[in-house]
Prior knowledge:
The protein is mostly helical. The chain has one domain. Helices cover 65% and strands 0% of the residues. The chain contains six helices and no strands. The longest helix has 23 residues. It is elongated and about 80 Å long.
Amino acid sequence: MADSFFLKDDEVSTQAKIPPLDEGEDEKAKEADLLKDQGMIASILAYIPFLCLIPLLQMRENQEARFHSKQGLLLFLLEIMAGLFLIPGLSSTIWKTVLIVALGAAAAGIVFGIQGKSYRLPFLSDIADKMKI
C-alpha cells in the first residue's frame, strides 16, 4: 500500500526525502529569537519609571537595550525634576507640560520597543549618546 493516498506505489520510492534540519542551526535560531525577545522586554522596561535601571545594569552587551535604557533613564530624571517642581506653591504650567510630554515620550518608547524599532527622542537621544554608562 502506498504511503500517501494520492501517490502510486512506484512514485513513493522516487519521491525526494527532505533532509532533517541541522541541530546547530536550530539552536542558533532559538538563541537569536531569545536574544530578540530579551531585547524587546528590556526596551519596554527601559521606559517604565524606576525599572529603567534593570536593563541598563543587566543587559550591557545588548546595544538595543542600552539605547532604550539610556533614553529611559533621562526621561525618568526629567520626570523627577518635573515632579519636584509640581509641589504646591512651586508649580507652573511649564513643568506640568514637561511632565506630560515626558510621560507621552515614555509611552511612545514602549510602543516602539514592542515593535522592535529604535526611535531617537529629540534632544534626549543626543545626551544619551554621550553618556558613559
